[in-house]
């Protein structure tokens, strides 16, 4: 690596871009231009996105870092995930850099998350280098994109660099710009070690590996002395087994000095000990870097295997995934209907979807997933405080003083022509209007949409049931959104029990606001009516809040025509046969239990 340490020759930067704007492709072109070793059997299409899912969805889920050398300078690229669920990880990756490339797609323009991530970068005092990508596309409106960058982000037009990540055009100019414009890292090599963990992952041979940016001091494993390293927030310690740089594969170097970006293998097994944002040092008394937050799940759902004998497979798969994902929390759960499974907590809906797909793909487990819920805080009449996530944890209404639910500040970025449909949508989901900001000044031309940012306060529960999909379809894919947690506020919440033939089915109960309960229950019963097979007797389906029935549907009985063999004769004979059938049905009903087949059950849960 570097023979003499010259901190002035190090440049640490990150790339901010919206999903699918070409970030990973651009990173690959940079690695090629700087002749970084890409030998690993001539890679898949994109080097930095390793998960199949990332390749497929075009999103970066796990961060990847890479060290390159360009004209004698060491360039450290720290990747960021682009999706709203991972906004805390983004802020930590940015904190590890001095500059950021703002990548804008020449066709699609600037999106909400890009703007909010740019704001994060500005708050952290980073240098922003604007880049327009995909200039090789025939109908790209580059002039318009330049105007957007100048107007929306207030960056000077002459700073903008235009590249094509696909063909590699102007990527060398961009590398030069990074060297020229990125501030050199500060840091005192003689001070005690101070390093920021911006990512962690599990490696079979090395245990948990943490990706770090060294701010002060140095880490040197050439001396054989065991070096104890302290985690300042958690007050725990470990001894590094190997250190090195990402090239992009792990490459051992024995030394990491202030300004460097690299990895530390810990030899430990539990990834939850190494939280992103944690500061590590060789001196317990060093003050930690600020901005640390423990990862907190927002959305909860239960995962069950479709076949009971797949439970062990699911358990192994969950444990393996948790090795690489410190923000996934889960605990055992049993259900009479569905058997053994897990209650899981996620950062958000996309996080949940990714975990679900990885379980189904990488570990071949077929899953049943209950509807996602959020966490509620309950104060009981005896003063006890409860935290619940599922309907059956909710105590009897007579024991509850107050229920509080999480609210978030929602920002939606969209062309202003969709303002009406967005306001209707958010209004129908209990959103409270806060503010509208016009992002582009001056009137709109026929070519140019005026972009607005709508701010709302909204319960998180309203966002987790297909809100984003609905927003996308109402705005033809133009709107993008992002949210951050505010606090817990009181809510008039009821537990809706579903009864089949007057018996409660606990796995189908749900929590809903009092005014929304009836319409949601009615929809659910209609679906159940189609799914539950007909019996010899009529089966009532009911939804109840406490002892009060709020909705009902009936599954009609299968009826045999007992009078078919009659021919002529007195009408009383016919009545007699029907009476007899009625009595038989009544007796059946008294002893008849309804078994809901698993397929019907799954169909109901899927909705």
Derived from helix and strand composition plus strand pairing, the structural class reads alpha+beta
Question: Number of domains in the coordinates?
Answer: 5
State the low-pLDDT regions, or none. 39-50, 58-63, 442-447
CATH fold label of the largest domain = Rossmann fold
**Shape designation:** elongated
Name the strands of the widest sheet in spatial order.
Answer: 11-10-16-7-8-15-12-13
Cα(first) to Cα(last) distance is 55 Å
**CATH top level label of the largest domain:** Alpha Beta
The CATH superfamily title of the largest domain: P-loop containing nucleotide triphosphate hydrolases
Q: Average pLDDT across residues?
A: 77
The biggest beta sheet reads: 8 strands, antiparallel
Give me the CATH architecture of the largest domain, please.
Answer: 3-Layer(aba) Sandwich
Radius of gyration: 29 Å
State the total count of DSSP E strands.
31
**Number of helical segments?**
14
Helix percentage: 25-40%
- The fraction of residues assigned to DSSP E strands is 25-35%
């Amino acid at each position: 690596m570097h023979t003499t340490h010259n901190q002035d020759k190090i440049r640490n930067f990150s790339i901010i871009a919206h999903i699918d704007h070409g970030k990973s492709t651009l990173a690959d072109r940079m690695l090629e231009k700087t002749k970084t070793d890409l030998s690993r059997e001539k890679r898949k299409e994109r080097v930095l996105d390793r998960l199949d899912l990332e390749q497929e969805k075009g999103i970066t889920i796990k961060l990847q870092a890479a060290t390159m050398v360009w004209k004698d300078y060491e360039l450290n690229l720290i990747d960021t995930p682009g999706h709203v669920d991972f906004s805390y990880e983004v802020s930590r990756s940015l904190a590890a850099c001095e500059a950021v490339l703002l990548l804008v797609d020449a066709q699609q323009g600037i999106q909400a998350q890009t703007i909010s991530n740019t704001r994060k970068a500005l708050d952290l005092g980073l240098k922003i280098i604007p880049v327009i990508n995909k200039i090789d596309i025939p109908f790209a409106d580059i002039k318009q994109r330049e105007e957007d960058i100048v107007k929306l982000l207030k960056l000077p037009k002459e700073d903008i660099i235009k590249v094509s990540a696909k063909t590699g055009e102007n990527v060398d100019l961009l590398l030069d710009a990074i060297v020229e414009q990125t501030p050199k890292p500060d840091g005192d090599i003689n001070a005690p070690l101070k390093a920021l963990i911006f990512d962690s992952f599990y490696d079979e041979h090395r245990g948990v590996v943490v990706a770090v940016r060294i701010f002060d001091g140095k880490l040197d494993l050439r001396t054989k002395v065991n070096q104890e390293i302290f985690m300042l927030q958690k007050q725990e310690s470990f001894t590094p087994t190997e250190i090195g740089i990402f090239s992009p594969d792990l490459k051992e170097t024995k030394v990491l000095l202030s300004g460097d970006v690299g990895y530390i293998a810990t030899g430990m097994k539990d990834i939850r000990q190494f939280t992103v944002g944690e500061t590590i040092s060789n001196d317990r008394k060093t003050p930690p870097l600020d901005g640390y937050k423990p990862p907190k799940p927002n959305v909860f759902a239960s995962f069950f295997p479709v076949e009971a004998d797949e439970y062990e497979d699911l358990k192994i798969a969950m444990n393996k995934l948790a090795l690489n994902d410190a923000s996934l929390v889960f605990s055992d759960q049993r259900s009479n209907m569905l058997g053994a499974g897990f209650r899981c907590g996620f950062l958000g809906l996309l996080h949940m979807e990714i975990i679900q797909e990885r379980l189904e793909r990488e570990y071949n487990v077929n899953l049943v997933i209950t509807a996602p819920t959020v966490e509620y805080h309950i104060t009981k009449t005896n003063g006890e405080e409860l935290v619940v996530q599922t309907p059956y944890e909710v105590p009897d209404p007579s024991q509850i003083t107050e229920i509080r639910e999480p609210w978030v500040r929602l920002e939606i970025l969209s062309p202003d022509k969709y303002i009406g449909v967005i306001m209707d949508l958010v209004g129908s989901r209990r959103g409270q209007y806060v503010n509208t900001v016009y992002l582009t000044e001056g009137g709109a031309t026929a070519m140019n949409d005026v972009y607005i940012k709508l701010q709302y306060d909204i319960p998180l529960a309203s966002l987790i049931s297909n809100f984003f999909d609905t927003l996308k379809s109402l705005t033809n894919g133009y709107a993008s959104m992002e949210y951050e947690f505010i606090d817990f506020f009181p809510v008039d919440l009821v537990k809706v029990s579903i009864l089949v033939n007057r018996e409660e089915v606990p796995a189908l109960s749900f929590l809903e606001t009092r005014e929304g309960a009836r319409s949601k229950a009615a929809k659910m019963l209609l679906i159940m009516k189609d799914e539950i097979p007909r019996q010899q007797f009529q089966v009532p389906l009911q939804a109840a809040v406490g002892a009060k029935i709020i909705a009902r549907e009936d599954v009609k009985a299968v009826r045999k025509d007992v009078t078919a063999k009659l021919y002529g004769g007195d009408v009383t004979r016919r009545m007699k046969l029907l009476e007899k059938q009625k009595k038989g049905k009544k007796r059946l009903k008294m002893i008849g239990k309804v078994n809901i087949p698993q397929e019907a059950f799954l169909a109901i849960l899927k909705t």
